[in-house]
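User: Predict structure, ligand FE2/S2 (inorganic) cluster.
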Amino acid sequence: MDIKFLKRSFFQRLLGISATSKPEIDDCWSYANGKLIIDLSKASELKTPGGAIRIEGNNLSKRVLVVYGEDGKYRAFHNRCTHLGHRRLDPVPGTDTVQCCSINKSTYDSGGKKIFGPMPHPIVRYPVEREQENLIISIREELK
Ligand code: FES
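Assistant: Predicted complex:
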């Protein structure tokens, strides 16, 4: 498989600045009882295939990357590269991969399996369901 790399500057990669933003409307999501719920009517970033947002903070214990794939499927990942820097991830346009924002560019397939780079493990992919205008993402604790 050919690996595509997201175009980022050296300094963006050195500093680990991800290309994916937090949602423009803060209250487009909520989290309770292991369920992250995103109101798609407020999450404009997820209206077009290829879009993505990163959800983090408040009472959510994990950083989550949510991608609206170019294949029309929603995917959610633990937004933490398993390589030692534990940087954030971004979707790579024209592919269904996600890639670490760091210099080493660890890259994972749509299932979270590693396909390029120094990371030791796959990333966790969370189940996503759509109910009307809500995306419901089940955040489970990782096994230690
Ligand atoms: S932190 Fe992701 S490749 Fe190093």
